[in-house]
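hey
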C-alpha cells in the first residue's frame, strides 16, 4: 500500500507544472570550454534560481570544475574516446580530457603564424562524440527545450545538435568579436576598415597601411574558418544528413551574447539580437580567508600587487627564467605581492618574504579589496573586464591569442602598461612601479569603473532577459536581420554595380557605333549663296 502511495506521489510530482514562465534551457560547451565556462555557469545558476530548468552539457577538460549543484540543473559530461591517441591535445585514454598545449602557447602564442594547425583535427572528434550518440539526442529531445545556449568557439556541431532538436540557439562568444565564428554570426558586420581584426592589435582608427594589413588578417580569418567549417560540415552531414551547413547555422542564430563592454572595447554596429554581456560574472567582493586577509591588511599604505595569469601559468610549464625574473622584480617592491601559480615551483627558486604564493584564489575578492593597487595579468578578457569593473590599473603580459588585442585595448585607454614574455626583471619592475607611482593610472581606472557600472541594467540582467525573450517569442525571428543571409556580393551591391557598369558599357558602345554613321555634329552652318 505504502509503495503504491509513494509511486503515485512521485508520478504527481514529476508531472507537476513548471512555475509560470519557466523554460528549459540546454547549455552546450565545445571540447575546450576553459575560462568560457565561468560565464555560462554563472548564467545557468541564475536561470535555475529563477525557476528555469537547465541541462548543462560539457566535455572532460584539463580543469574540471565541480558539477553545478541545484535541483533545477542537470549536468551531462561527455568524453572523447582517444584510446589510440589519434586526437591532438586530448589525453590518450578511453575518456580523454582536452589539454591546453601550454608549451606551444608560451612559445608561439602571440604570432598569427604560431596557431597549431593540428588543433583543427579536434573538431571532427568533438562532432562525432556529440552527434553520433542517438540515445543522447533522444534523451534531450524528450526534455522539450525552449532555447539552446551554445558556447560558440569551435562549436558548429553544437549548433547542428540544437537545430536537430528543433531548438532556437543563442550563442555565447567569450572573445573579442573580431575573428572566429563571431564574424559569421547573426549578420554581425565587421568592416575591415573600421573593426580591427583578430590579433592585429590595431584600434578602430587605422591609416591606409594598417587597413591593408587588417584586411589581410581578416581574409586569413575567413580562410581558416572556412577550413574549420569544411571539417565540421563533414561530420554534421554524416550524422545529421540534410542539416544546414555551419555558415547557415551561424547566420540564423536567434542571438549572440558577446563578452564585451563599450567602456573597454571599441564601439561598433550591432544587430538588435547581439547583446553585450561583458563582466556578466562581476560582483562585489566577498570576505577573504583569514590568512589571506591578514597578509593583505599587513601591507599598510603601500598595498598589494595581485599576480594572476590564469590557467596558462603553470610553474612546471612556464619558462623558469621568467619565474626567476618575476620573483626578482617583486622582491624589490615595497608592496606585498599575491601570486596565483598552479603547479610546483622549482626548488631552485627562492620566494621573497613579501610574496605569497596561492594555488587558487578568489580573484574578484582580491581585486575588490581596498589594499589592491595593481593587477599583473595575462589579459584574458574575463580578467580584463574584472579589473576595469573593480577599478584597478593593470600590468599586462599577454601569452597567446586574443590577449594581445585585449592588452592593446587597456593600454590605449591608459589603464595598463604592457610587457612581453621576454621582458627583463628591470623592465618588469619599471612597469609595475610606473603604474603604482603615476596617479593618472589609478584616476583613469576609477573613471573606467564608473563608466562600466553606469548602465540601465546589469550585463547579467540583460543576458537573462534576452534568453527569456527568445524563449517567449519562439526564437525571436523579429530581431533577425535580412542581411544575415546575403552574400558579400549582395550585401555590398556588387551585382547591382556590375549590372550598372555593364549597361553603361553597352550604351557607350552603341553610342560609339552610331556616331560615325550620322557624321560628326556640325557646330557652324554655312549660308553661302549659289550663283
Amino acid at each position: 500500500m505504502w509503495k503504491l502511495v509513494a509511486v503515485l506521489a512521485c508520478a504527481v510530482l514529476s508531472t507537476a507544472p513548471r512555475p509560470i514562465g519557466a523554460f528549459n534551457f540546454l547549455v552546450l560547451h565545445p571540447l575546450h570550454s576553459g575560462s568560457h565556462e565561468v560565464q555560462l555557469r554563472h548564467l545557468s545558476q541564475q536561470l535555475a534560481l529563477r525557476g528555469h530548468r537547465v541541462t548543462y552539457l560539457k566535455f572532460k577538460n584539463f580543469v574540471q570544475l565541480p558539477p553545478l549543484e541545484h535541483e533545477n540543473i542537470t549536468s551531462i559530461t561527455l568524453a572523447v574516446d582517444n584510446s589510440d591517441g589519434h586526437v591532438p591535445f586530448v589525453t590518450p585514454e578511453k575518456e580523454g580530457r582536452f589539454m591546453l598545449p601550454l608549451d606551444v602557447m608560451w612559445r608561439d602564442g602571440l604570432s598569427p603564424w604560431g596557431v597549431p594547425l593540428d588543433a583543427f583535427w579536434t573538431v571532427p572528434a568533438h562532432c562525432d562524440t556529440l552527434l553520433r550518440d542517438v540515445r543522447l539526442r533522444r534523451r534531450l529531445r524528450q526534455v522539450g527545450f525552449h532555447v539552446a545556449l551554445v558556447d560558440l568557439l569551435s562549436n558548429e556541431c553544437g549548433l547542428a545538435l540544437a537545430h536537430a532538436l528543433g531548438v532556437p540557439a543563442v550563442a555565447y562568444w567569450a572573445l573579442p568579436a573580431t575573428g572566429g565564428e563571431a564574424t559569421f554570426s547573426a549578420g554581425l558586420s565587421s568592416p575591415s576598415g573600421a573593426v580591427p581584426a583578430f590579433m592585429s592589435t590595431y584600434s578602430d582608427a587605422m591609416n591606409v597601411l594598417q587597413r591593408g594589413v587588417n584586411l589581410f588578417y581578416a581574409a586569413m580569418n575567413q580562410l581558416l574558418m572556412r577550413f574549420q567549417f569544411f571539417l565540421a560540415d563533414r561530420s554534421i552531414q554524416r550524422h545529421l544528413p540534410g542539416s544546414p551547413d555551419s555558415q547557415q547555422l551561424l547566420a540564423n542564430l536567434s542571438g549572440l551574447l558577446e563578452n564585451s563592454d563599450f567602456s573597454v572595447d571599441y564601439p561598433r554596429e550591432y544587430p538588435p539580437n547581439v547583446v553585450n554581456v561583458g563582466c556578466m560574472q562581476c560582483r562585489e567582493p566577498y570576505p577573504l580567508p583569514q590568512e589571506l586577509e591578514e597578509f593583505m591588511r599587513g601591507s599598510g599604505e603601500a598595498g598589494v600587487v595581485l599576480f594572476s595569469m590564469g590557467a596558462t601559468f603553470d610553474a612546471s610549464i612556464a619558462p623558469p627564467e621568467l619565474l626567476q625574473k618575476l620573483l626578482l622584480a617583486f622582491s624589490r617592491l615595497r608592496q606585498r605581492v599575491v601570486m596565483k601559480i598552479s603547479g610546483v615551483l622549482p626548488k631552485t627558486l627562492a620566494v621573497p618574504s613579501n610574496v605569497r604564493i596561492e594555488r587558487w584564489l578568489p580573484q574578484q575578492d582580491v581585486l575588490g579589496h581596498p589594499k589592491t593597487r595593481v593587477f599583473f595579468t595575462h589579459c584574458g578578457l574575463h580578467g580584463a573586464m574584472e579589473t576595469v569593473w573593480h577599478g584597478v590599473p593593470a600590468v599586462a603580459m599577454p601569452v597567446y591569442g586574443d590577449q594581445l588585442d585585449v592588452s592593446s585595448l587597456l593600454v590605449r585607454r591608459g589603464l595598463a602598461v604592457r610587457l612581453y614574455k621576454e621582458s627583463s626583471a628591470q623592465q618588469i619592475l619599471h612597469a609595475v612601479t610606473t603604474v603604482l607611482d603615476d596617479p593618472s593610472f589609478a584616476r583613469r581606472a576609477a573613471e573606467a569603473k564608473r563608466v562600466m557600472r553606469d548602465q540601465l541594467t546589469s550585463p547579467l540582467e540583460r543576458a537573462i532577459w534576452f534568453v527569456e525573450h527568445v524563449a517567449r517569442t519562439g526564437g525571436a525571428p523579429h530581431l533577425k536581420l535580412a542581411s544575415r543571409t546575403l552574400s558579400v556580393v549582395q550585401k555590398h551591391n556588387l551585382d547591382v554595380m556590375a549590372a550598372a557598369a555593364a549597361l553603361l558599357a553597352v550604351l557607350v558602345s552603341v553610342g560609339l557605333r552610331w556616331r560615325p554613321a550620322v557624321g560628326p555634329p556640325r557646330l557652324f552652318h554655312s549660308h553661302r549663296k549659289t550663283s
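The chain has 18 helices and 13 strands. The mean pLDDT is 90.
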